[in-house]
Amino acid sequence: MSRKVIFENLGRIRYQEAWDYQEKLFESVVREKSEKKEGKEQYLLFCEHEHVYTLGKHGDKQNLLIAHHVCESKHIDLHTIDRGGDITYHGPGQLVVYPIIDLESFGMGIKSYISALEDAVIDTLASYGMKGEKDEKAMGVWIDVADPPKARKICAIGVRASRFVTMHGLALNANTDLSYFNYINPCGFRDRGVTSIQKELGHEVDFQEVCHRMKEAFVNRFGMELSYRLKHF
Questions:
Q1: Which domains, and CATH codes, for the chain?
Q2: Catalytic residue among 47, 155, 187, 211
């Protein structure tokens, strides 16, 4: 099966606009798969979002610690969406990755797919001399996961799949303003912190370089054959 994937960097974009685009591509891939079309297109989207909180379909609204009108006053959008996981924050300086791929083309199931997403992030962090880790009890990538008082999340993961076609994905804190996490219990956790590449290294990192390293990690972990196109909407 084909591992050809179209890569698009959407730049900084409001969440709703990116979500609508994801849905369009996702439905197209599912439809082409159901029609057993040869050479169906698959996608890898990179972007940053304006300030937004997203709550997964099984999330607890109590994990948003401020009222909706306070979100509005701070110009933070709020969306309840159809991915797994609880509440998280997206904003400038955070690399968001949306793979819209047919897992069967990559010989993966959902569990191995999530593990591969985590591995791609861990590889990206390793290129900066950082040790990212998995937690068997919680999706995502962590720093100091074996020391609960110090454990802090650097990357959140939440996905949706239908007929083994995926959407949503991961969010890696690069130069993220972490203060926005103070208004939520990130991913439902009340006793764990969050961090970023910038915070761990003590200096801002080149965002486009983070994108490049993440893209290379996806190519290596998934065996993707990438082609490129400009923002397509």
A1: 4-228 (3.30.930.10)
A2: 187
N-to-C CA span, the chain? 28
pTM above 0.85, yes or no: yes
Active site residue 71: no
CA distances in angstroms from 163 to 101, 156, 169, 230, listed in the order given? 11, 23, 16, 28
Task: Measure the CA–CA gap between 70 and 34, rounded to whole angstroms.
Answer: 44
pLDDT band per the 50, 70, 90 thresholds, residue 46: very high
Average pLDDT on 74-91 reads 91
DSSP the chain: ---EEEEEEEEEE-HHHHHHHHHHHHHHHHHHHHTT-TT---EEEEEEESSEEEE-TT--GGGB-S-HHHHHHTT-EEEE-SSSS-EEEE-TTEEEEEEE-BGGGGT--HHHHHHHHHHHHHHHHHTTT---EEETTEEEEEESTTSTTT-EEEEEEEEEEETTEEEEEEEEESS--GGGGGGB-GGG-SS-EE--HHHHHTS---HHHHHHHHHHHHHHHH--EEEE-----
Each residue's pLDDT tens digit, 89-118: 999 999 999 999 999 999 999 999 999 999
pLDDT tens, position by position, 144-177: 999 988 999 999 999 999 999 999 999 999 999 9
